[in-house]
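Task 17 of the worksheet. Students: predict the tertiary structure of the chain below and write it out as structure tokens. Keep your answer in the requested format; marks are given for formatting as well as content.
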Amino acid sequence: MKIQDLNISASSKSALKSIGLTMVSELAGQNYITLVNKFPKNFNIEPLINELNPLGYLLPPSNEISVYDVPMSKRLQNALIRNSVMYLSQLSSYPKEEILHFRNLGETTVIELEQICQEYNIEIRSILSIKEYFDKYQFPSKIYPMLFQNNISCLDDFKHMTAHDLYQICKEDYCLAMQMYYILTDNGIKFDNWQDKYIFEILPEKNAALLWKKHKISMLSQMPACNECMLKQSLSSSNSFAAAMKELLSIG
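Model answer:
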């Protein structure tokens, strides 16, 4: 059965389609929290929930504390719901800086929210605290929200990762991943092996960056006739990086 055939509003059908859900079977196993994470944070999902719940879809997640079940002021409750926070645990996915900018969340309601979080053991983390910890490593500024989203707050959190894990954390921004890789390895982090290798795992930063800039080559698998040893040897035996690359890329 298609979602288009459900007895819900056109706007709800359109919203579900926008996140790639077109079949009713795709709603199975979804709850409010899993679905809300698929939408932009400013998307008001409450009308969609109100339409799907009576039909038996998007049932409340188990072991979650609803904002409706917690004694709080109406102003705070409305501010949370307006920002798609229906369960207290969701607050942990927002940095403190963002929560403080929730619409209609004034000084009094912030204090109230902090008291509720303390009572229910909900941790609200800050991007600023992550920045302060990593400040001495001179990370690029745009990495900090990504570190927050991946619960990375200290250098040890990078241990036992692969370079591909790092690439995913950097939201597939190759240049950012490359920059982070060199900073981390310079500070003692050793990355685990994975099924491929990024060029920045093999070459010095200048050469890896140039290979990406000139040829958009980021992984060893993009050079099927070349292995890691050949890549290193060709570069070390050539006076010209460009000449070495021309030779390697012409192989095969």
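Marker's comment: The chain has four domains: 3-55, 74-119, 125-195, 199-252. The chain has 13 helices and no strands.
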